[in-house]
Write a structure and sequence with these properties.
With about 300 residues, the protein is an alpha/beta fold. The protein has helices spanning about 5-20, 25-30, 85-95, 110-130, 145-155, 160, 185-190, 195-205, 210-215, 240-255, 270-275, 280-295, and strands at about 30-40, 50-60, 65-70, 95-100, 135-145, 175, 230-235, 260-265. Helix 4 crosses helix 5.
């Protein structure tokens, strides 16, 4: 665990003694540099900021901070980059630059188009984050729910990165928070309720070939050089458990790295809302994983 995060934990523990744990976020919020609504696809006409991002950087002014790109959830139809909760405070205090992105929502973009937006945001970060004290050689991707699916797709199907002249080597790690749709056709087949089944069909269509084309688990082939994965799922949620374990198994079978954890005592929403709170196991899993992958290619100034 890095020294900055240890200091964050000490400060958080002190805050917990006096009351509300959210005061950790409020205290840290004044100790970061924030840039909002940066257009990553050069669409100045985009009044709804569908392809914009926000940057939260440590206030120390130092360079070479590792970078985490956050991809929100929302069933591919909802959500925004502003839904970061405790993450800006926790990540900047731990010495990371956090980049939260928007992407075009369905039906204005299909899932492949959304993955293309995420890849374009990664490309922008790679080329520009040094101006905001980030290290372009240490970029990880993290998403929740639908965002987890998009992150997994980026990390298993290199075509989206290649469209931006990038590769798997440009990402150190992929963090997935309670995704349940890594094999889309299988997930739709497993859904018992007609209403929820129709929601997924409205996004992925009823064409099984199209569903398979955007299923991360099905993009994995032997010896594919993917980034390292951290996969967290809700222990009591059977669909997420099944899909997460299957994805991890496929990654490992192909020779890749996949660390898997079951979050107990959480639900789909609270896992996201509380990430960054020092008392939560998921917070430790995430920061331990990031420290491990970030130290592998630390910039000379950091060694």
């Amino acid at each position: 665990m890095n020294i900055r995060y240890r200091l964050f934990l000490l400060g958080a523990a002190a805050a917990l003694v006096v009351g509300n744990p959210l005061c950790v976020s409020l205290l840290a919020a004044g100790k970061m540099r924030v840039q909002r609504n940066i257009e990553y696809l050069n669409r100045p006409q985009d009044i709804f900021k569908e392809t914009a991002l926000d940057i939260y950087a440590p206030a120390d002014g130092k360079d070479h901070h590792p970078v985490v790109i956050w991809v929100h959830g929302g069933a591919w139809k909802l959500g925004s980059k502003g839904e970061v909760h405790l993450k800006p405070a926790a990540f900047t205090q731990a010495g990371y630059v956090l980049v939260s992105i928007n992407y075009r929502l369905h039906p204005r973009a299909d899932v492949a188009g959304q993955a293309g937006d995420v890849a374009a945001a990664i490309n922008w970060v790679k080329n520009n984050i040094a101006q905001y004290s980030g290290d372009p050689q240490r970029i990880s991707l993290m998403g929740h729910s639908a965002g987890a699916h998009l992150c997994a797709l980026i990390g298993t199907d290199e075509q989206y990165l290649k469209q931006q002249k990038l590769s798997f080597a440009d990402l150190q790690g992929i963090i997935l928070l309670d995704g349940a749709c890594y094999d889309v056709a299988q997930h739709i087949n497993d859904i018992p309720e007609r209403f929820f089944k129709s929601l997924f069909v409205s996004v992925f269509t009823s064409d099984v070939k199209k569903q398979r084309a955007v299923s991360p688990t099905l993009q994995i082939t032997p010896q594919k050089k993917m980034p390292a994965f951290l996969i967290i799922y809700i222990a009591e949620r059977n669909d997420s458990k099944k899909q997460s374990r299957s994805l991890a198994a496929a990654i490992k079978q192909a020779g890749g790295s996949a660390e898997v954890h079951a979050a107990r005592g959480e639900n789909h929403a609270t896992l996201n809302l509380s990430l960054g709170m020092p008392t939560k196991p998921a917070t430790k899993w995430v920061f331990d994983f990031l420290e491990a992958v970030s130290s592998d290619t630390a910039s000379p100034a950091d060694k």
